[in-house]
Structures are given as structure tokens and as C-alpha cells.
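Human: We require from you a protein record containing the residue sequence and its fold in C-alpha cell form, and nothing else.

Assistant:
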Amino acid sequence: MKITSVKAVPVRLPGARRALGTAGSPTELQSGTGDYWWSRTVGALYSIHFETALVKLVTDSGITGWGEAQAPLAPEVACEIVRLLLRPVLEGEEFDGSVEGIGAMWEHMYRTMRVRGQTSGFMLDAISGVDLALWDVAGQAQGKSVSELIGSGSTPDAVPAYLSGIAGAEAGEFTQNVARATEAGFRTFKLFHDAGTAKLLSRFDALVANGPAGARVAVDALWRFDVETAAAFGEQLDSRDALWLESPLPPEDVPAHAALARRIRTPLAAGECYRTRWEIAPFLREQALAIVQPDLGRCGVTEFLKIAATAREAGARVIPHVSIALGPQIAAAVHAAAACGCEMLEFNPRVLEVANAWLEEPLTVTGGAWQVPRRPGLGVRIREAALRERIQVPRS
């Protein structure tokens, strides 16, 4: 079959702010006049809207594939890369719908800007959005789900979910939300270090005290420490048998991660910032990470599989990252986690609620586990006409 059209659409959903203290909106923001506000506690910008980038790929066989790039800020950038750089090299190309064919397309896209130094960032986000669409087309062409395309045999029907962030500014509200999550079947949780250390540790202890028996708790530090302060904080987590310490240090600093890993027992986790096996390899060589967290909206299925293989060869566990996303990204993460035997997958209820509003059939989490879609491809169908009515807002 031939690829006849590749289009990317920036999505900006006003009024879809996430609950504070959860994935995609982990910290309180400073007030601003535009769409992007600084965090009060982390050196990063966040959108006041729900932003992402969808990719629609059409073939002459009548198959339409949907993909999505992780684009929580400025989704227009990834979309312009698709329009200007990736669309011209893909439209009109023959695609046999095989996994090998997807790999060849990935290499084709990657080579367009490799010698020009664009081997990460927005460029790889755009490639990943197209990659997901290619996997969606391939699955439909073969009559298999993406997890079946990845795996050599049967894949599980569900993947355990960990609850990413627990909303609740006050202790009472926080405790109530812990109780609701426990009733829903969750046993594993992640807290965001969005304020002071004392508050975080208090919440950690409250979660253990009020949550399910044997609750496992991880902490996302949001890149806020240096080695010394991270080691002191890590000792507190060691005494609490924390599941992992995520993103404790600046993501570029391999030696610092390696030094910290030698000083604390709590496993270090990171990976959402890294889009290729080459970016993650130095951390693995230095035994700096025990858990690798690739984001399917930044690495795509194709490179995820290579990152996962590289991580496991180094003895690291693979637990995919899921942040601001609509259906294609989320479905891709579920399929990849199921096919690769990942022990769990990140889950944010508010993100799934927004994503499901634009799907013909919802993605589901039941009893604390993601249910693996069984339709061919990614198994998601976008309510395209309805979404187009909402995606654009005036820029400030």
C-alpha cells in the first residue's frame, strides 16, 4: 500500500486543566499573562491548557492510522516538523505494513536531520507521532493489535497501573482520595515532590498509614536536587522502603546520577526526557538508573523497543512514562507495556478522562489495571469532527 497523506494537528483544549499534584500538572504555577506559566517550585514552564499533537496517516488501501507526539507545550512545533520535514519524505512511499517496514520508515525520518544535530527534542517528538500512526496502520493491515505485532505470542489482557499523583491540598482531602484509590484497587502510588520535603514525607507516611496494606510508594522529585541534597532526601526514602526516586537531578548529568545511585538504596528512575537508546546508554553504562521510563509520545513504539532492550541488557527495569496524552499515546503505552512484560504502567485519572472524551470507545482501567485494547492497530478511534471544534484557542 502507498502512504497518501500525513497530517499533524496541534491540539489545545481550554478548560482541561489537570488536578494539582498529578501527572502533567505536578506543581502550583505562578500567575502569568500568556498560555505558559512558570512552576512555583520547579524550573519549568507548564501550559494552562491541555496540549498535545495528533498525527493522521492515510493510505491508498483505505486505512487511516492515528499517532500522537508528546507536546505539552507548543504543539505547533512538532506539527510543523511533520508538515515541512517528514510529510515530504513519506507521502507517496510504499509501505508493506510490516514491523520491518516501520523500522525502515523510522530510519528514513531520523536521517533527515541527523547530520544537522537534530537527534532529540521536538524532532524526535514529531517522528514518534508518525511512528505511532505507522504502527496503527500496520496493525489494521495485519488484523492484529499493536501488542500482538510486538509480541511473539499471546499478550496479557491487563497491565497493572500505578496511580500517578494524588490530588488534595489539605490533609483531609488527600486522605479521602487515598481511600477512594484503595477502593478502586490501586496498591502502587507515586507522589510528586511539589513543595517542601517535610510536606512530602508527611504525605508519604499518610499514604502508607491510610492506604492499602503493603502499599508501595514512589516519589518524583521533579529534577529539584543536587547530589548532596538528593542523598539526604534519599536516606529518608531508604528508611521508608520507597519504591523508587524519580528524576532527582538535572537530566543531563550522568556522573551525578551515578554518584547518587551509589549513596542510597532507593532505586533511581528516569527516562521521560530521553528519546533514543543513545541518550539513555550513558546512564546504563554508569549503572546510574535502576528503572528506565520511556515515554511513547517521545520515542514511539519503534525506539521504545530498542530502549527497553538496551535497559534490560544492563539489568534495569522498564516502566513506561505516561503524561499529558490523548488516546493514541495512551494506547501505545498500554500495548508496549503488555507486549514487553512491563511490571506496571503510569496512570493519571484526569488525563484518561480527557482522552476518553475524544474516543469512540474508551480506554479503561479496572481493578487497578489497564485493560489492553484488542482491536487491530492501537485500537482507538478519534472523534475527529468533535475534537476539531475544540482544539484551537486564541494565542495570548
Remarks:
- The mean pLDDT is 93.
- The first helix runs from residue 75 to 90.
